[in-house]
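Page 47, continued from p. 46.
Same chain as before, 143 aa.
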Amino acid sequence: MDTILDKKTKESYLENDVNSILLEGVAVKDPSLRKIGAKNTPFVTLQLANNRYYKSGGSTSRESSYFEIEAWGDLALDVEKKVKKGLFVRVTGRIKQLRWESFDKGKRQRVVLVASFVDVLEKKYNGDKDIYDYQFPKEDKAA
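Result:
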């Protein structure tokens, strides 16, 4: 496969392994905004629930997974302003593994999703049980 890339993109592409994720789900609670470091960089955390539906023994079952999302800078400010508990959200970003040693419990780790793009979706029931259509909200022309 031949891929055409500019020099800067090619160097970045060759230096990094692929780490990209797209996740949709429901905001479990309102985002939590903080300012971090000497420059007071905006930082927000968001809890997202992602549901998977499947057939099991003739009935529909649900498997729920919960993810922690981080956003930084201007994106953090937008997330804090636009995302609220119960809204359906699409997040594109990368996975980051945090590792540390706890004094009493030894080595610890957790995985978070670092967002590069966040969008609020409208969830519309399309008439079929447990099936919904997702649409982007219309922009408010008055704003």
